[in-house]
Amino acid sequence: MQVDSVLVIDDEPDMQLALRHALKKNGCDVQCAGNGAEGLKKFKENKFGLVITDMRMPEMSGMQVLQGIKAVSPKIPVIMMTAYGSINRAVAAMKAGASDYLLKPFSLETLTATVQKVRDAGMYPERTSCRKPGVAAGLKDKAIITQDPCMIDTLALARRVADSDATILILGENGTGKELLASFIHQESRRKAGPLVAINCAALQETLAESELFGYERGAFTGAFTRKVGRFELANQGTLLLDEVSELTLNMQAKILRVLQEREIDRVGGQQPQAIDVRIIAISNQNLVKAVQENRFREDLFYRLNVLPMTLPPLRERKKDIPLLITFFLKKYSLINNRRMTKTAPATLEYLMSHPWPGNIRELENVVERAVLIGNGDTMLPEHLNFINTMAASKATSPTSSGATIKEMEMALILDTLKACHDNRTRAAERLGISLRTLRNRLREYGISRSPEPHKSTHKPQN
Question: How distant is the alpha carbon of residue 54 from its chain centre?
């Protein structure tokens, strides 16, 4: 699809003139309209490869124009223009189908780059289409495998907003692929040639967090013999991934808020602030709204991070993806381990489809990898799933056999596994294919301090 014929819709004559001049310099044929109604009329009467419309106009808004265009020609790309303070409207427009947005005032270079991006997307549709069954988005070794409509929409949105510098907040349970989505966004962005630097906020020691994030100067404290560059500076001209951002202390939250506001950092012991050019992607498995209400997370930082929120559904809500993921992981680990297991027995698939997957995709990958390692044929069989034999043995009395809720199923699985592991939480987490931190969160959520009927054993419960 070419975009050589462009329709510009804006109620300001000066903006129409500037855009007409700039686009013609790039070889485009340009028509202009002074309001939404006139723009829609021209759109229906002529063939355009691209529409550029202002967001705020009298009588008919840019959002209404977008809806009108998509009703006539859903595939025609639309670029929205909006003032800096109205970025939330631009985000809403992109969710409604806009291809990109321009923040006023913008330069000729920004306009040209944005139009070229849309042109490239039209000439190479396989780069932007996410609606193929079993789509594998991202790098080969970090593929996002899905045919779930919700995930496909999320990937499409991620592609559309990748080139912006807006902060992105990715939410979802552990193991749902939040880090993969962050990597995908980085690779789709204009910053892909720059570094992607990740830091786990939960692993930061409070006394060292500031030095780790912002760096320090020589002599800043005892033992600081040389200057150290922090994670923010390491990510300059790239992307910084703040994993488990909800675990930051309130003090560190305040410092990161300042970085987001001022776009500069202060090294520990430094005299001058250092300007940075970094795109922030924050990740959390927690309910940040609840954390704000409980005064565990700053409200102002939440709104700074929540410019472009994306929520990944748990695997139990993506049942159709399970067979695709199983096939992908079987091929992956058979290749790595020089095995030939590439098939799944019907009984095995039925069993895996009914599992609640508290550890989500990470747990499923763990299960398939172990099956490949312990199996000796080309088919994954039920006996290869010994990690949930305990659950199978108690299936008749389990809540899963009586129409229980997902939470009840998950709680039963956790209790069964804890019992089989003699209350050893570390072993239980390994068997479930989840982190010890996730297991602790689940136990706290369900109000479980220990398994209800522990075995008499020489093993002591471990926290």
Answer: 29
